[in-house]
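Data availability (excerpt). The following record was deposited with the supplementary files.
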Amino acid sequence: MEALLIIVILLILGLVVLAIAIAAYFVMTQRKLVSLDELCKNATSQIAVQLNSRWDAVQALVKMTAQYAKHESETLTQVINARRISNIQTPQQINEQQSAIGEVMGRLMAVSESYPNLKADSMFMKTMDGMKEYEENVRMSRMVYNDTATKMNRMVRQWPSSMVASMLHFDEKEYLKVDDEKKTGYPDIDGAFGK
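Predicted structure:
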């Protein structure tokens, strides 16, 4: 009888230890998922801040352009006001803003080619340098976001953390992708070297 009591106590003690281990794993996994989710949100926010700064720089360029080509600047201002998203929260919105800025910059560069004095203006050149800096910041922020999304997606998909993620309604994060239209505009290196 005493041996049976010891076995029951050991069994209960084993179940308690197992329950504590499962609970500890659940809590640690939940905390890791929340941390990765917040890092993804932070990276998205950083990209949004940089995109807004780029829009501001584009607007400054458009105002400078107004001195040379009033009609062109009015059109560009209308495009900026129509395409600018103030509250960016998804990778799709980030990609849309990147494309919109690229479109406006293409038009702006075409206008600046028509006006050599504008292109040579020191303020215009400084603002263009600022645009390049914002673009680099966006590129770096996009890399941080995609790296964090990769870690999050692994946890959401790999067992046993996928069970915790499913119970707590954590989903995979969408990756930021390269604009395929820009890729088609790249030069054909193989063709250039006859390969």
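Summary of structural features: DSSP finds eight helices and no strands in the chain.
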